[in-house]
Write a structure and sequence with these properties.
About 25% of the residues lie in helices and about 15% in strands. By secondary structure, the protein is of the alpha/beta class. β19 and β20 form a beta hairpin. The radius of gyration is 23 Å and the shape is globular. It starts with 12 loop residues before the first strand and ends with a strand. The structure holds 1-deoxynojirimycin.
Length: about 550
C-alpha cells in the first residue's frame, strides 16, 4: 500500500454489501471469503477503496446498521481471521478498505442495551437516552416516516421510554455520557489496529439531543468529532473519516471545520439535482447547488454518488422538486419509500445505456470523489416487490448460470431472490457477459474511472460553467495546477448544436471518453447526438 496520506482527495470508492456480493460456503449469503475471491474483479475496475457496509454481529433488523457486538464479524460473513485476510488481500492489490462505523445507535440486542433496560442502577443505564415522558425533543423530525410515529418507544422492562432516530430496534447511544465516547474510540482502535483505512461514520448529525433544537448538527457533536479526528491524526495518520450527514451544504460544511474534523462528507443535495437536471434538460439545478456549496479546506473532499443501498433520498429538495422527481422516476407508488425512491440507477434511466453512461460521466466530471454502488457498473435492476430497501440489495450478478455465480446454494436458499425477469435478468445482465464485450457498460465504467483518475483536475479543480447557447447542453471547464478539461453533455433526446469556447478551436481535439466527438479547428459549434457527451483536454 502506498503511504500517500491524501489518497482520498482523488479517488474512486466502490460500495460493497457483503451479504449480496459472493457466497463462498454455499449458505446463500455472501461472506468475506467470497469477497476476497472477487478482489481481482474490484481491482479491475480501477477503484481505490472499498466501502464495506456493516459486517458486525447483528440481528439484521436494518441489514447490520443495528450492531449487537462492535468488535467481531457476523458469523454468516466469517471470522476476524477472514477479515484480516481481506485487508491483506485488498492492500496487496493497492485497494484500501473503509468500514461502516455505526456510532449513533446499537441494536436493542447489544449487551449494553440489555443491561441498560434491565437495571436502573447498572453502569450501562446511562449509555442510552431514557425518559419518563415521550414528549421531549418535539422538534426532532422522524426519519423513517413511512413506518415510525415517534422517536420514543416504551420499554416495558425499563419502565421508561428510550430515544431512537431510526427503528425502535436501534436505540440511540447517549453521547452526554463520557463512557460512551470512550467506548466508541475503543471500537475504532480495534478496527484500525486490524489495518482498515478509515470509517464511513453513519448518521452523525444525530449524536446529541438538546431541548429547543431539532437535535441535528449540535455543537457538542462537532466537539466530539474533532476529538475523534485528533485521535486518528495522532495514532493513525492517513486513515479517514467519511461523514454521512444528509444535510444542506451549509450545514455539512462545519463537519470539515478547519480541516480538523471529517476528511470527507457525502454531498447529498447534489445527487437528486443530477436526476433533476437530466429530467428537465437544464443545468440550472446543478448550477444552483454548486453556488450553494461552500469551499472546503484543501485536505478535505466531497463524496459524490448516484445511488447507494438506501432509497434515493429526496430530503434535500423543495416539495415541488420532490413531486417532479417522484413523477418522473417513481411513477408506481411502490417505487417510493419515506422521502425517496427505492430503485437502482439502470431502471431509473429506463435502462437506456446512453442515459446511464451520461449520468455517470456527468458525476465523474464534477468535484469530489465518486462512489460506485456494487452492481451499478453492470446496470443491475431492482425488485420493488421486496420490502423496505431490500429491492436494491439483491445478489450480485456474476454470470448466466442458474445461481448467477453468486452462490452454490439452491436459489430458494438465497438471502434474497436474484433478479430474473427481463430486462435486468441475471442471464443477460452479468459480469462475464460484459467483461467479454468491449462496448459494455462495465468496460465503459472502467474506461471512465481510468480517465477520471488520470485527470486530478476533475477531483479538486475549479468549476466554471460554459455558455453553449443551447439550454439542453451543459458544458463546463475544470482546471487545477495548470491542467484543464472541458466537458460537455447533451441532456436531451434530440441532436443539438452547442457553441464551444474560442480556446478550444485552435487545434483538433478528440474526446477522451472514446465517443466519436471531435473538435475541428475553427469550428464554432459541436453537434451532439441525443445524450452524447465528451471530455476534451484544454
Ligand atoms: C444510514 C444508513 O445508510 C441506513 O441504511 C441506515 O438504515 C441508517 N443510517 C441507520 O443506521
Amino acid at each position: 500500500m502506498d503511504d500517500n496520506q491524501n489518497w482520498y482527495l482523488n479517488a474512486i470508492f466502490y460500495q460493497v454489501y457483503v451479504r449480496a456480493f459472493c457466497d463462498s460456503n454455499g449458505d446463500g449469503q455472501g461472506d468475506l471469503q467470497g469477497l476476497i475471491s472477487k478482489l481481482d474483479y474490484i481491482q479491475s475496475l480501477g477503484v481505490d477503496c472499498i466501502w464495506l457496509m456493516p459486517i458486525y454481529p447483528s440481528p439484521l433488523r436494518d441489514d447490520g446498521y443495528d450492531i449487537s457486538n462492535f468488535t467481531d464479524v457476523l458469523r454468516e460473513y466469517g471470522t476476524l481471521e477472514d477479515f484480516k485476510a481481506l485487508i491483506n488481500g485488498a492492500h496487496s492489490r493497492g485497494l484500501r478498505i473503509v468500514t461502516d462505523l455505526v456510532l449513533n445507535h446499537t441494536s436493542d440486542q447489544h449487551p449494553w442495551f440489555q443491561a441498560s433496560r434491565s437495571d436502573r442502577a447498572s453502569t450501562f443505564r446511562d449509555y442510552y437516552v431514557w425518559s419518563d415522558s415521550d414528549q421531549k425533543y418535539p422538534d426532532a423530525r422522524i426519519i423513517f416516516i413511512d413506518t415510525q410515529k415517534s422517536n420514543w418507544s416504551w420499554d416495558e422492562k425499563a419502565g421508561q421510554y428510550f430515544w431512537h432516530r431510526f427503528y425502535p430496534t436501534q436505540p440511540d447511544l447517549n453521547y452526554e455520557n463520557p463512557a460512551v465516547r470512550t467506548e466508541i474510540l475503543r471500537v475504532m482502535r480495534f478496527w484500525l489496529d486490524l489495518g482498515i483505512d478509515g470509517f464511513r461514520a453513519d448518521a452523525i448529525p444525530y449524536l446529541y439531543e438538546r431541548e429547543g433544537t431539532n437535535c441535528e448538527n449540535l455543537p457538542e457533536t462537532h466537539t466530539f468529532l474533532k476529538q475523534v479526528r485528533a485521535f486518528l491524526d495522532k495514532y493513525y495518520p492517513g486513515r479517514i473519516l467519511l461523514g454521512e450527514a444528509n444535510q444542506w451544504p451549509e450545514d455539512v460544511r462545519p463537519y470539515f471545520a478547519d480541516g480538523n474534523e471529517l476528511h470527507m462528507n457525502f454531498h447529498f443535495p447534489l445527487m437528486p439535482r443530477l436526476y433533476l437536471a437530466l429530467h428537465e434538460q437544464d443545468a440550472a439545478p446543478l448550477k444552483w447547488v454548486f453556488e450553494r456549496t461552500p469551499s472546503i479546506p484543501k485536505n478535505c473532499q466531497w463524496c459524490t454518488f448516484l445511488r447507494n443501498h438506501d432509497e434515493l433520498t429526496l430530503e434535500m429538495v423543495t416539495d415541488e422538486e420532490r413531486d417532479t422527481l417522484w413523477r418522473a422516476y417513481a411513477p408506481d407508488p411502490r417505487m417510493r419509500l419515506n422521502l425517496g425512491i427505492r430503485r437502482r440507477l439502470a431502471p431509473l434511466m429506463g435502462n437506456d445505456p446512453r442515459r446511464i453512461r451520461m449520468l455517470n460521466a456527468l458525476l465523474y466530471s464534477l468535484p469530489g470523489t465518486p462512489i460506485l454502488y456494487y452492481g451499478d457498473e453492470i446496470g443491475m435492476g431492482d425488485n420493488i416487490e421486496l420490502p423496505d430497501r431490500n429491492g436494491v440489495r439483491t445478489p450480485m450478478q456474476w454470470d448466466e448460470t442458474r445461481r448467477s455465480g453468486f452462490s452454490t446454494a439452491k436459489p430458494d436458499q438465497f438471502y434474497s431472490p436474484l433478479i430474473d425477469t427481463a430486462p435486468f435478468d441475471f442471464r443477460s445482465v452479468n459480469v462475464v457477459a460484459q467483461d467479454n464485450d468491449p462496448d459494455s457498460l462495465l468496460n465503459f465504467m472502467r474506461m471512465l474511472i481510468s480517465q477520471r483518475k488520470a485527470h486530478p483536475e476533475l477531483a479538486s479543480g475549479t468549476l466554471e460553467w460554459v455558455e453553449t447557447e443551447n439550454p439542453g447542453v451543459v458544458a463546463f471547464t475544470r482546471r487545477w495546477e495548470g491542467k484543464g478539461i472541458f466537458t460537455i453533455f447533451n441532456l436531451g433526446d434530440t441532436s443539438r448544436g452547442a457553441r464551444i469556447p474560442r480556446e478550444l478551436r485552435t487545434e483538433p481535439r478528440l474526446d477522451l471518453l472514446n465517443s466519436y466527438l471531435r473538435i475541428v479547428p475553427d469550428s464554432t459549434n459541436l453537434n451532439l447526438k441525443p445524450f452524447q457527451f465528451g471530455w476534451f483536454n484544454l
